[in-house]
Amino acid sequence: MQKLLYLYKSSRAGFRANSIYSAATVVKFISSIIILTVYYFLWKAIYSGATSIQGYRFNELMAYILLTRILSMLYPFGIIDTYSQLVIRGDIGLHLLKPIRMEWTMLGNFIGRNLYSCLSGGIPYIVLFFVFASPYISLPGIGISILFILSAYFFIFLFELNIGVLSIYFTSLWGVGTLTGAIIALLSGELLPISFYPEKLIGFLDILPFSSMYYIPVNVLLGKECEWKQALAIICIVNVLLLVIYSCTSKVLLKKLSISGG
Amino acid sequence: MGNEIITVNRLSKQYHVRIITEGNIIKRIFSKKKYKEIDALNDVSFSIQEGQYVGVIGNNGAGKSTLIKLLTGILYPTAGQVSVMGRDPFNDRIKNNRNIGVVFGQKTQLKWDLSPLESYDLLKTIYGIDDETYKENIKKFVGLFEMEDFINNPVRSLSLGQRMKCEIAAAFLHNPSIVFLDEPTIGLDVFSKDSILRFLRSIKEESNVTLILTTHDLEEMNSICDRLIIIDKGRIIEEDTIEHFTERFTCSKSIVFCIEGDIWKDINPIDNEVLIVDNGKVIVSNVRKERVNEIISLMLANNTINDVQIIEPNFTEMVKKRINEGD
Fold first, then answer.
1. Phi first, then psi: what are they for B45, rounded to 5°?
2. Of the four, A55, A88, A198, A225, which is 20 to 30 A from B114 by CA?
3. Which parts of chain A sit beneath pLDDT 50?
């Protein structure tokens, strides 16, 4: 209970800390509108003369792209860099001094930051998503999608945590965060629906948890057929595995932590 | 004073430090990385009683901060054992941290973009502080540190002195049994320093908290600590009560006589004593305690003395002398 209360309070603190910079919020909002305009005209041009591509009509594909943008703002990308910076600056020590695991603090901060990011830069995407997607959305679809989004949130958090903790050994993980982001974008269907990929790659991606981040929840929400039960089982199993691996590696690596200087 | 609250037995900590090789960037990437071992702490043993204020002093890089990090369970020792409140601070870190407070003078535990009060609210939840204790402590600290004017301002807008007051208040917020202050007054003006020292004295009077303080300001340490530990190159070279240490190092004094008229010299310096006669003044230095009366009597009997001053070495000089003496 105390941990949940702390999670709530640190999320609120993370939200407030981000909302203080109001100019940044305005800039983010404006850049969202510009990117959105580019997306719209790009896909309009691709769809000129075609009513459907790979089973997606224009409205469905726009809804897909919009929701993946919203989710990318909601997901906790950046844990790797945050962890690495804590190790480089020695601030990890301040987290270790608290009678609560530092992962709870990170989780709370990221929830607050992601919610703020989603609400500040994501509003135009959310409004347009409902314009394009409203005919396809069903209540069970919403429920299943939320389940996927929550699982994917923890998957990304744990996945990045497992890489971030290696900074205790390597100190700097410069560039690893960007590389991870690029791999995830490719494997998760963030940029394009996975059904646009070659058949062999689709078969491979079916057994990985990445499609549960964007492809599956968005398709479920749009009422498209997909193997969501198998995907949900895979991401849940992977989450448990990542949690176990992190517990072991962090225990070993913390013994090697070195913070020199006053 | 009570039971042993901290026990350190043959504690050592080595750092594995990479040596940056010379040459261009391509060479650096492909050449084999070289490392060296640095003994930050070497075979250190001591114990601290409940309620004691202990000052840890030493030069930069002597191992003071490493010792604090080992006692708080942030770092894992290379060898030796540490027991804090009967627990291993590394393996029982979460449990142990409930009863300790820490301030690192060069880092902040407060949220940079939020006010100190908002950070305190988070600490209240982390440490499970009940409402009554929380309100009482906030009221007390705001009063002692005169924090009313800035407690609601974002931390990033505070001066160093204001921020440090807020940091120290945060460390004491949950009524910890042990507080570690690592150079809490570094870079502060005299008024902020005084305010912090007054606060620490007041806490000492009204609670049984154990305080471990590292500082380069030796007079400040002398004014609030009961004991001192001097670390040099990772080893403890001195461990004593402040009182006994001062007594040991004030055994030699200097006596200055201001004399009216001609000086009639009648002192034969013995041992290491040095006699200087200059411009109406007679200065006898390195005088042993038991010789002071004899010298003053001799001088009074044979001269017309206007003024006599007995000068004792200050605390800073005593510590410098002790560090120079070495292990």
1. -135, 135
2. A88
3. none
